[in-house]
């Protein structure tokens, strides 16, 4: 039987339900902690996950996963806004969580590998940069990243608002009233 998380015939509602089931198996710390989430995904895969910010080509992906012998490196474009960086990291982490293989340089034929310089071929084999995920894998990663965002947002919203001084509270009330075009007693 075909895995519904890998089948192009799986409808969106089923994909979401199956992805939610996997995400339900993770702890969502309050306040949200991306490193803690990556630690859980790392434990499931049995390899440490390292984040590596780097400028990536503007016409390419915002992130990628490099699988090495002992660890996984999520490279993300450090020129993106911080919230977009976090989304890219979650998207790439979803590829790791769902064990998407993508296309590896190991998939190149011997003839294609001999076209590379020997040193580059050795480096390519060592780092096994993966990309070229299928449409279904990209869809799963994007849905999972969006659902992670929802869970992270819920965890963030559970963080108590710090106590504000009476002066700050009054200023906030005046600001709110001005936005709503109301007058306050002050």
What does this structure look like?
50% of the residues lie in helices and 13% in strands. It contains seven helices and five strands. The protein has a five-stranded mixed β-sheet. 16% of the residues are buried.
Mean pLDDT: 80
Task: Detail the poorly predicted runs.
Answer: 120-130
**Rg on CA atoms, Å:** 22 Å
Share in helix: 40-55%
Shape estimate: globular
The count of DSSP E runs of length 2 or more, i.e. the number of strands, is: 5
Could you tell me the strand content as a percent range?
5-15%
Query: What class would the helix/strand composition place it in?
Result: alpha+beta
- SSE order: HHEEEHEHHEHH
Distance between the termini: 69 Å
Order of the strands making up the biggest sheet: 1-3-2-5-4
Q: Please count the helical segments.
A: 7
**Largest sheet at a glance?**
5 strands, mixed
